[in-house]
Amino acid sequence: MAGPLAGIKVLDLSSVVFGPFCTQQLGDLGADIIKVEAPQGDTTRTTGPRKSSHMAALFMGLNRNKRSLVLDLKTSLGKDALWRLVDEADVFVHSIRPQKIAKLGFGHEDVLSKNSRIIYAGLHGYRSDGPYAGQPAYDDVIQGQSGTAALMARLIGEPRYTPTIIADKTVGLYASNAITAALFHRERTGVGQFVEIPMLECMTAFNMVEHLFAATFDPPIAGGMGYTRVLAPWRRPYKTMDGYICMLAYTDPQWESFWSEVGMPEMKHDPRFDTLGSRSDNINELYQIAGELMISRLTSDWIKTLNKLEIPCAQITEIEDLPRDPHLSAINFFAHYTHPTEGNVVLPDIPVRFQKTEGSISRLQPNLGEHSAEILAEVGFSEGEISEMVQTGVTADPFKED
User: Fold this and answer.
1) Fewest CB atoms within 10 Å of the CB: 35, 81, 229, 344?
2) Is residue 125 within 8 Å of 136, Cβ to Cβ?
């Protein structure tokens, strides 16, 4: 098998980051991802540096292991083509607002009535049974609504977005997990279903894992919301004599080893820090003491010492240095490929490993409409019909000669 999801056909009507990140996970694991694009293509095709006008860096990071099919779903012929694909698909994924997809005629009830075995994944901003249902949502908005931006204010004094597209990517992982679970249920029962993956609810659940904190109890006990350890101002990379280091002593033995190393063995008996619970109650003070001690040595000295003491640590790595990281280099994590139109490209490897059904990067990122003719032929369109669809703009074939 080419991957654990080999043989699964996914119709991907999503765009930007949330949906494409989800379906790329499925494609990496062997699913056949048919990326259905409007004639103008996914907006990420023009987002960021690019050699070609339609193959920008952000698109390249989200759309490997996919085939591109252009369909104008505002036309009856484009809709007919999609319905033919629905007949043979295992999964239908979209990130279109529910009222918009319903207006096109591809709401979950319509699709499931046509193919009762299909997994219909609606990637929405908000769950459909609440007052925000149907509102547009993007990563920045959801960071604000889910408490993510406000958590940053507790550290730096004002709300900030995290410097990664955390909501889209996190909820994209929720979506790939949910789709895979629904496929497993179908294997047991033979029945498909509608799965709704809403951004606000997923990110709120994600944040509340640790930040519900004292409000876990009803009524809340002393302490309020917000996990004190990760919100401690001194929870930061520690400054050393020549740079910075990340260090997390956590267990009692680790802190005892640390105190002995810095010549303060009596600290292990300090009632503020002698147990995991007491350290949690006084975490910022603990981290401040440790931070003021770390500055006395070189980063390399600390790395050597902390490794010997089996205290987790690492030096700070700039993103530009990640391709040269000794571990990532040894496992060839950043692989080099030759793209048919974009030349030499670099891609991060599939991070998870399967002993028996290894995933692979078997397709590089598709040009807009690159596989239109191929996919339409697979569902019974003749060469003449496909040519007419290209001529009328219902589909597109970038390599077809004029």
Assistant:
1) 344
2) yes
Give the span between the Cα atoms of 287 and 12, in whole angstroms.
47
CB 264 within 8 A of CB 208: no
Please tell me the distance from the alpha carbon of residue 287 to that of residue 56, in angstroms, as a whole number.
42
Q: How far apart are CA 147 and CA 365, in angstroms?
A: 34
CA distance from start to end of the chain: 39
What are residue 338's DSSP bridge partners? 344
CA distance 23 to 18: 9
190: closest CA among 119, 122, 121? 119
> Model-level pTM?
0.95
pLDDT tens, residue by residue, 61-98 = 999 999 999 999 999 999 999 999 999 999 999 999 99
Query: What tens digit of pLDDT does each residue of 331-375 get?
Result: 999 999 999 999 999 999 999 999 999 999 999 999 999 999 999
Model confidence over 116-168: pLDDT tens digits? 999 999 999 999 999 999 999 999 999 999 999 999 999 999 999 999 999 99
How far apart (Å, rounded) are the C-alpha atoms in residues 242 and 298?
6
Which residue has 């698909």 as its token pair? 89
Compute CA 189 distance to the chain's CA centroid, rounded to the nearest angstrom. Answer: 29
The residue ranges of DSSP E strands in 163-251, in sequence order, are: 193-198, 238-239, 244-247
The whole-number pLDDT of residue 402 equals 44
Q: How many CB atoms lie within 10 A of CB 215?
A: 15
Which string of DSSP letters, residue by residue, matches 103-169? HHT--HHHHHHH-TT-EEEEEESS-TTSTTTT----HHHHHHHTTHHHHHHHHHSS----SS-HHHH
Q: Does residue 171 contact residue 227 with C-beta atoms inside 8 Å?
A: no
- Give me 266's structure tokens: 């009596």
